[in-house]
Amino acid sequence: MRFLLFFALFPVLAQMSFGAVKYNPVGDLSVYGGKYYLDGDSASADLKIDAFFSPSFIFDEKNEFYPVYMGYYNGTQDVQELAGGGVLTRQRQEHTLSLKYVRVNDFDKIKPRISYSKALVKETKDEKWGDGLFDYDTISLGVEFEQERPHGTFSQSYDYFSVRYPNYSSLISSADTVIDTTTYSELSKNAGDNTLNNSSHRAAFSYIWFPNTDVMKISASFTYRTYSDQSVVSKTGGFKSEKRKDMLAGFGFRWEKPSKKLPLSFDFAFDRQLSNQNSYDASRTKYIDDFYGYTRLSAGPRADFFFKNGSSFGYGLNWEKIYYSGRLAQDAAGNYRNDTIHQEFWLNSLYFRYPLGKKIFVRVNYSYQASSSNMRYEAGYRYNYSASSWLAGLQWEF
């Protein structure tokens, strides 16, 4: 709270210390209407809203302050990865407030930051906002160090994240009325209530250099995540006193070809997650080791076309494949096979934007995603589906 109060009062204190302050507000507001199709079935039309606003303050050549608000509302249904699988959601909204201070020292910069976000998820139409099972709050604190050199720019960062699910709790905590006392005692021991709440420490590094007219970037990150109330599942289906811990290592590469008429880019990413958490399917008495470990690969190009009249057109293609380390595939009836799950995604997205006036555009977005997997049992999560969406509306930049 003291940290938040300091940042809230910082512009006033800085103006008293530095005198004249340059105020440079920037923002973007987009309002769309559109439809979503899942496996060819059409859902009802609804709204999608995206908003961004930052009243940036430049105090002098060494001190800058950037409050930022980002928010969205998605009224069309789609499949989101939640709690380890693809969940069909009806409506979603998220609001994030972040504060960043930049201290410039010649060619070096220090950027402390803090943010808070609230995400609300509706799985059914009659569900009330704030009652969603997968609603969550995130608080993060971090700092970034940047060094600009003749041959390129280095950056190192550290961030701490705390994620809380206020409406999600283990069903074991309320099962004492429907199962016998002995079984309840055995299962509830070490089970935990707030099993999705987690905290993360993330360290990252990146290097950007500029060969010829290109821009190249490599990045690496390491995340250590703990679940303080989620116990590790044992081979017998009970719970150990040990808590779940995940480690995620990532590597990324980006190539850009800047251009006023035709900017091009290509991205590649590799992620590897290790987890000590297992799973136990009580209905089939099947123990599954290393349930959340995976290797993820993704890659894709993007191109944007800018025309003299201010209109633009863009197309992006992204391929992604996930190989789970221990999660076993099942047939349509739920019977386990010997091979582990793998899932592949292809995402095509394009847009067209045309100016109606100064900083006001009409915009049309289209996306198509196909997901395929050797997992055929989908009582809990979606693995095989095709989804597309059309959106059309107005975009205002200032």
Question: What layout of secondary structure does this protein have?
Answer:
Layout: H1 2-18, E1 22-38, E2 41-42, E3 46-60, E4 63-74, E5 78-82, E6 85-89, E7 91-105, E8 108-122, E9 136-149, E10 152-164, H2 181-188, E11 198-209, E12 215-233, E13 239-257, E14 264-275, E15 279-281, E16 286-288, E17 294-306, E18 312-330, E19 336-357, E20 360-373, E21 385-397
Antiparallel strand pairs: 1-2, 1-3, 1-21, 3-4, 4-7, 5-6, 7-8, 8-9, 9-10, 10-11, 11-12, 12-13, 13-14, 14-17, 15-16, 17-18, 18-19, 19-20, 20-21
Keywords:
2 helices; Porin; 398 residues; 6% helix; mainly beta; 16-stranded antiparallel beta barrel; two-stranded antiparallel sheet
